[in-house]
Amino acid sequence: MSWDEEWAQLKADALARQQQSAHMQLNLLPADMGGDGSAAGPSGHGDGFAVNASSIDGSSHLLLEIAGVLYEGRMDGENATMCRAPRAHPGVASNAETFARFAQDQYNDAVVLLAALAGKLKSTNNTYAEYDDGVRAKLNSVLLSGRYTEPGDR
Questions:
Q1: Where do the H-state alpha helices sit in 74-89?
Q2: Residue 117 belongs to some domain of the structure
Q3: First and final CA of the chain: distance in angstroms?
Q4: Is residue 42 very low, low, confident or very high in pLDDT (cuts 50, 70, 90)?
Q5: Helix (H, G, I), strand (E, B) or coil at 99
Q6: N or C: which end of the chain has fewer CB within 10 A?
Q7: Contact, 47 vs 124, CB < 8 A?
Q8: Handedness of CA 72, 123, 47, 143 (dihedral sign)
Q9: How far apart are CA 148 and CA 143, in angstroms?
Q10: Is residue 137 part of a domain?
Q11: Residue 93: which domain range?
Q12: Nearest to 125 by CA among 61, 79, 72
């Protein structure tokens, strides 16, 4: 299948999914892609969001791995040196230096952004875990200290 045919098929599939739904739903995995196809929570109510702490933590590690890959692919000094005058035409050398500085700025910005996002995801994961533990403790205290009373004895 050529790229144009594949692109046309993807657009047709997206249009078909859009026409099946009366409105747009965010953060929803269609049933044919492994989701349940509904935006409701497990009780049939709610916003349909679910949290998986290991997924959040894994995403933060993935962002740091992407930053590492960017580090490995950055423009090194050897390339910049080979493009300097007198090895290269002065116009080429000037443009290569301008590009190298631009690329370095973009690289630094991307790495800082990825590291900041990774930090926020780790913080979110910790906050979620603390909140989840608090809710669990409250529910356990209700279960442990509660007392069942027959309906007729109330």
A1: 77-82
A2: yes
A3: 71
A4: very low
A5: helix
A6: C
A7: no
A8: positive
A9: 10
A10: no
A11: 76-130
A12: 61
pTM: 0.50
Tokens standing for residue 152: 């007729």
Closest CA to 104 of 85, 80, 83: 80
Distance CA 115, CA 112 (A): 5
Q: Provide CB contacts within 8 A for 122, sequence distance 6+.
A: 57, 60
Per residue in 72-95, pLDDT tens? 777 666 667 777 878 888 888 888
The total number of structural domains that make up the chain: 1
Q: What span, in angstroms and rounded, lies between the C-alpha atoms of 97 and 80?
A: 7
Report residue 54 as tokens. Answer: 């290991």
Residue whose token pair is 């890959």: 69
Contact 14, 6 (CB under 8 A): no
**Structural domain contains residue 89:** yes
Q: Where do we find the tokens 């109510």?
A: 45
- One-letter amino acid at 59 equals S
CA angle 116, 121, 125 (to 5 degrees): 150
Q: What share of the chain is helix, strand, coil (3-state, %, to 5)?
A: 70, 0, 30
